[in-house]
From TrEMBL:
Protein name: ATP-binding protein
UniProt organism field: Streptomyces formicae
GO molecular function term, any single one: ATP binding
Gene3D superfamilies per the UniProt record, alphabetical: 3.30.230.10, P-loop containing nucleotide triphosphate hydrolases
Domain AAA+ ATPase residue range list: 237-421
């Protein structure tokens, strides 16, 4: 009787669980039994592993073989267990030393010819292994860079099962020739999943001359001083934004330039975003670490499951998770289903989404900056004088009510985007500052906020609870008088007051002040209520 054990990782959402893979050989009729709550794709690994072992010039044991995946209570799926199963079987058959694989974590799919194919979710899998105390992992060669992002873990990238057997037995490692030059690498097919959001995750146009990512320039936007101010405040404090106006005014153009104002991700944020994108299958090959904030803009026909996460079996990341630490842009927001929009209310408050399905409950990260763009009515001409809007008043009310009050109450900034005038569009006076100039101010404002919030669980103003802002950091005397009057009149809720206070702190950070003044609170109120209070000149915008 032979026995061997090794380890792999099962992904539950974007979190990993270390799984012990055990192989037991007993005399009897040759059979291969796989136990431990495997799904259909994992059950099929029996045939892949057998063919890979035989084609790797190793003998398949002609005995009763049982492979167990423990803990058996955790659902397991995917092809990433193939490499661990093959090594456990070879260890039980004494083709390799069982002690050599006992403390290894092996992740990878096997082709029928014995080649090791890459799988999704390598980064969160290796993170889980490191947290469990494992220090040696074996992954496909194509994902070795992604696995190496985890500190304190020794990573071995292999091309084939033959190479791994040779390494474990201290034998000469055979050379594995790559596919023919000039042909697409079929080994990368499993990393990019069609229909999983390919192309929606990263907003950068490409590398600039200095090596940094280049974005669409804010200087391309003509006029729109109020909207530009709101865009800068949103980027500096990570405040949610609503852009409302007629078609062609520049709402989408403004939203597409917001990613360029955000600072690069920190190391921890990059690991979080990379893990989500790796599981979702949208991590670009050759770029193991996402350094720029993601940008996700789903179509208005998106379902609730595609926004917050779902799918058959265990839920998969949705648009809110793909936009984690970045921007979620909902163009034509009233055209989204009411159920899908209201499902955003929980992640907007908590920064994560908990999806419960029959197969299990998954917690997915979802701390994003939401930007909504909406027309004033179905035809879009309601706010234009002499434009001939024929939408009945009841139709306009129903259209605007698609954005529910509870959802809008969580939006800090609400800006009316007016049509661009001829002088702004054709003259030089309508051109504003460039993305680089505004991004520098945003970075300085975030540095001020980070210094103030040092030692707390928060990093930007939008994350700070209102109670902390009211008791721990005081505004200038009398600065909240106007906000208090609006609250007494019913124009602000308690949540709205907290959000005005957060925006006021962001305005103070942009202006270089130690605490918000009357001007900062006036700007926050104007950007939330739309009532002119003469405060837009604060950030260099024209009134």
């Amino acid at each position: 009787m032979g026995f061997a054990r090794t380890c792999s990782v099962a992904l539950v959402g974007v979190e990993g669980v270390v799984v012990e893979v055990q192989a037991d050989l007993e005399p009897g009729v040759a059979a291969f039994t796989l136990v431990g709550l495997p799904d259909k794709s994992l059950v099929e690994s029996r045939d892949r592993v057998r063919a890979a072992v035989v084609n790797s010039e190793a003998e398949w044991p002609q005995k009763k073989l049982t492979v167990g995946l423990s803990p058996a209570s955790v659902p397991k799926g995917g092809s990433g267990f193939d490499l661990a199963v093959a090594c456990a079987v070879l260890g039980a058959a004494e083709r390799i030393d069982p002690r050599a694989i006992a403390d290894l974590v092996l992740i990878g799919e096997l082709g029928l010819d014995g080649r090791v194919r890459p799988v999704r979710g390598v980064l969160p899998a290796v993170l889980a292994a490191a947290e469990a105390g494992y220090r040696q992992v074996v992954v496909p060669e194509q994902t070795a860079g992604e696995a190496s992002l985890v500190p304190g873990v020794s990573v071995l990238g292999v091309r084939s099962l033959r190479q791994l057997i040779a390494v474990l037995n201290d034998e000469p490692v055979p050379e594995e020739e790559p596919d023919g030059e000039g042909r697409p690498d079929a080994m990368l097919a499993g990393l990019m999943v069609p229909g999983a959001g390919v192309g929606t995750g990263l907003a950068a146009r490409g590398p600039a001359d200095d090596g940094r990512a280049s974005f669409a320039d804010l200087a391309d936007v003509a006029g729109q001083h109020a909207a530009r101010t709101a865009l800068e405040v949103a980027a500096a404090g990570a405040h949610h934004l609503l852009l409302q106006g007629p078609p062609g005014a520049g709402k989408t153009m403004l939203a597409e330039r917001l990613p360029g104002l955000l600072p690069p991700l920190t190391r921890q944020e990059s690991l979080e975003v990379t893990g989500v994108h790796s599981v979702a299958g949208i991590l670009p090959p050759g770029e193991p670490l996402v350094r720029t904030p993601p940008y996700c803009a789903p179509h208005h026909s998106a379902t609730m499951q595609s926004l917050v996460g779902g799918g058959q079996g265990l839920p998969r990341p949705g648009a809110v998770s793909l936009a984690h630490r970045g921007i979620l842009f909902l163009d034509e927001a009233p055209e989204f289903s009411a159920k899908a929009l209201d499902a955003l209310r929980q992640p907007l408050e908590s920064g994560h989404v908990i999806v419960a399905r029959s197969a299990g409950v998954v917690r997915l990260p979802a701390r994003f900056l939401m930007v909504l763009a909406a027309n004033p009515c179905p035809c879009g001409r309601h706010t234009l004088q002499g434009a001939g809007c024929e939408c009945p008043a009841s139709v306009i009310r129903r259209y605007q009510a698609r954005l529910s009050g509870p959802l809008l109450d969580r939006v800090d900034l609400r800006v009316e985007v007016e049509p661009v005038s001829r002088s702004d569009l054709l003259g030089q006076s309508g051109r504003g500052e460039s993305t680089e100039t505004v991004a520098d101010r945003v970075r300085e404002a975030r540095d001020r906020a980070a210094a103030r919030l040092d030692g707390t669980p928060w990093s930007v103003n939008s994350e700070v609870p209102g109670h902390e802002l009211r008791t721990r950091w005081q505004v200038a005397p009398g600065a909240l008088a106007a906000a208090e009057r609006d609250m007494e009149r019913g124009m602000l809720t308690a949540r709205g007051m907290d959000r005005v206070l957060r925006v006021a702190w962001t305005a103070a950070d942009l202006a270089g002040r130690d605490r918000p003044t009357v001007q900062d609170v006036s700007l926050a109120l104007q950007l939330r209520t739309g009532i002119a209070r003469g405060a837009l000149v604060l950030l260099g915008a024209e009134p």
